[in-house]
């Protein structure tokens, strides 16, 4: 099963918990999530 991260727009090859956890703990994911939510909030505030 393929796992798709909507925030980073990346597909994790194997949908293993370990790869998902290591990805969501990664710096890039966190940055993308913060950027994603700030964009969502700013669009709602407008």
Can you give a write-up of this model?
This protein is an alpha+beta fold and 46 residues long. The protein has one domain (3-45). Helix content is 59%, strand content 13%. The chain is built from two helices and two strands. The chain has helices spanning 17-24, 27-45; strands spanning 3-5, 10-12. A two-stranded antiparallel ribbon has the order 1-2. Strand 1 (3-5) and strand 2 form a beta hairpin. GO terms for molecular function: nucleic acid binding; zinc ion binding. Pfam families: zf-U1 (PF06220). Keywords: Metal-binding, Nucleus, Zinc, Zinc-finger. It is found in: Nucleus. This is Matrin-type domain-containing protein.
Q: Report the principal-axis shape.
A: elongated
The major β-sheet equals: 2 strands, antiparallel
Structural class: alpha+beta
Order of helices and strands: EEHH
Task: Label this structure with key terms.
46 residues; alpha+beta; two-stranded antiparallel sheet; nucleic acid binding; zinc-finger; metal-binding; nucleus
Summarize the structure.
One of its GO terms (cellular component) is nucleus. It contains 2 helices and 2 strands, in the order ββαα.
Topology, please?
Layout: E1 3-5, E2 10-12, H1 17-24, H2 27-45
Antiparallel strand pairs: 1-2
GO cellular component, one term: nucleus
Domain Matrin-type: 3-35
Pfam families: zf-U1 (PF06220)
